[in-house]
Amino acid sequence: MRTWHDRRILDLFGIELPIIQAPMAGATSVEMVIAASKAGGLGSLPSAQYSVQQLREELQRVTAETTGPINVNFFSHVTPDADPVGQMRWRALLASYYVEYGLDPAAALSGAGRAPFDTGFCEVVEEFRPKVVSFHFGLPDRSLVDRVRATGAKVLSSATTVDEAVWLEANGVDAVIAMGFEAGGHRGNFLTQDMTTQVGTMALVPQVVDAVRIPVIAAGGIADGRGVAAALMLGASAVQIGTAYLLTPEARIPKLHSTALQGAGDASTAITNVFTGRPARGVVNRLMRELGPLSDVAPAFPTAGAALAAIRSKAEAKGCNDFTNLWAGQAVRLAKRRPAAELTVQLFKDAMAVLEAGSTVHRP
Ligand SMILES: Cc1cc2nc3c(=O)[nH]c(=O)nc-3n(C[C@H](O)[C@H](O)[C@H](O)COP(=O)(O)O)c2cc1C
Question: In angstroms, rounded to a whole number, what is the distance separating the alpha carbons of residues 238 and 253?
Answer without folding.
Answer: 26
